[in-house]
Amino acid sequence: MQTLLERQVRQALEASEYDAIPLYPEQRPCSAPSTRRILDIFENIQRYTLTGGSASHIFVTQLTPLQRQTATWFGLRPSQYGR
Q1: Nearest CA-CA partner of 41 in 81, 1, 83
Q2: Model confidence over 57-80: pLDDT tens digits?
Q3: Helix, strand or coil for residue 23?
Q4: b or e along 3-18 (b: 16 or more beta carbons within 10 Å of the residue's beta carbon)?
């Protein structure tokens, strides 16, 4: 699974207008992201469900531009992420 994840992101990165993405400390660029670094992109995402009576509301952390771009590389629509 890790190899497939890395392959998907690396191929998408190669096909995009980016040479690298900022994954290392101090936002240094990374041209061959590892699975750990890819997962770290989404580390701060939180999802809450508030339920009251018959209604419930879902709250999801707003995605950063890097998270939005990475989600599209996986075929996810950022507007649907976390729902």
Answers
A1: 81
A2: 888 889 999 999 998 988 888 877
A3: strand
A4: eeebeebbebbeeeee
